Amino acid sequence: MKNLLKKLNLFTDETRIQDVLFLVGIFVFIAILIIGLFPGKNVMIVKSQEFFIYAVMTVPLVAALYFIVMSLRRHLYTEPAQFGSSIRKKMAMAFVFVAILPSLPIVLTSNYLLNQTLSGLIFDKTSQALTEAVSMSNEPVVQMKLGIHREMEALKYQLDNRTLSVDFREGREYLRSIYTKKGMTLFIFNFFPGEKGNALWRVDPVSEDFEKNFMDFFRIAGFDDGIRIDKLSIQEIDFLAGSLRYKQYLLVLCKNIPEDIAKRAQIFTDSLADHKRLANTINELKSNSGMYLFGLMLFIVLVSVLMSLYLSKNITKPVLKLSEAAQDVAKGNFDVSLYRESEDELGTLFKSFNRMVYELNRNRKIIYQKQRLEAWREMARQVVHEIKNPLTPIRLSAERIRKQFSENHPDIKNIVLTGTETIIEEIGVLMNILSEFTEFARLPEMKPMKTDINALLESCVKFFSSHEQIHFHTIIDKQIPEIYIDKRLMKQTLNNLIQNAIDAVGVEGNIFVNSAYVAVNGTGLVRIIIRDDGIGIKEFDKDKIFTPGFSTKSSGRGIGLAIVEKIIMEHRGEITCKSEYGKGTEFIIDLPIDTNEGQNHGKNTDR
Description:
12 strands, single chain, alpha+beta, 14% strand, five-stranded mixed sheet, 4 domains
């Protein structure tokens, strides 16, 4: 896919291609979720409005996911220096994808199985059977209703034809006795309808069972000129009541429904109602199960994000501690020690790191002692060599004075004066030699302080600018911050290098002095370059220039560059030399930009 987009030249930027592929992946992911989680809604996508609504609702979700992940992704690639943050975010994203990828098929499978299981709980035949059972159980009640309706029609007919009468008590008693024989009860009330309720009262003082309950019902019931059949439940007993208005009377004919018939009908009616409620609940669950599972998946993603942030922090925190400790060791602090309570792999790594630091420190001390002894041996050889030269004229002068004195030479006075002058002069040479070697062996204690290295460099150049035929070319980087150095020792170093450049140039030439801010392996450095176009250094002498006692000058002691190297090393810096014989020499000094007030600078231990 990525190669196809490149061939079509639709996107030339690698990041843009990845963004497009990621966006397509999100849409595919959401589409799979919708199709898998809402199967009942998208069987006929064209006819389904709910599927369209859910699809539209996912657009802001897709956009939100896209922008969140893209911002995190660009943040990772635009800030590579933040090691811990980058690793933590990458691990968090990895945990999230590990949580999402297996949860997607699980959620889709669960949704499918849930829908299949719910569909198996409801059958159309069950609903039809219950409906038929209700109809069959209500058949006796229907027949009773029809019987009461026929009785009421017959009663109305006879009253209209004056065959029977309710205007007299004898006629009313006669009707009651007839219906009592038929298993029914007849109530006769005086009746006057009203807007807020009907007015009823007994015609005869005789009171029947449940008469008051029927009166309460018919006081609020509506009437017309026809026959009305009602089913009433009074004190857990079911009745069928037929009512008829005749003149100012209300005739109510009621019959008790047998208990077994009522219970049977109620059982089937309740079962049918329960079945319908269950069917509605299952249909609702089937319709919304996808949404529920979708919400569950979002909850899983949220929990996985939080857990991934927590776990990644616990994992990267010791890694960051290890990185900081390694940086401290790189700065020369060998007192670093890491501790971890758990005996896991990181605990083992911490122990290995502590062991490594211990071995490095021990080997460093051993190597330092060996180098120190070797340096003193070399210095002793150089001192012996330098001392032999002035000792010869001293010895010769002393022997000459002694000889001439023993022979009573007439010019003994001049001989003594000449000899002693020679001896004093050579002793002065010896004192200078000892002074130079003492200076190398015992530099003053460093006192680092915040210093503008550019100003120091410019002052050194200005000090030597009196040479008319030697031209200085200075390029200063104004972005260099102040650094912690011993100003006096660093000035001595720069003066020494500039003086060497002047000696190499001779009467006329050019000296280039530059300063710049550079980054090496993520560490900020101040780089100072002093270059000349003098005679240069021969190839076989390049490796010896920092050795105490070695010099290409006839009058040199070979101590100056050794002192320069020692001062730079005390500042935890580095000095290198590039030279081509006949074309010139270049010295490069790299000094660290330290923000901890120089407490990690080296100290002169040769005391």
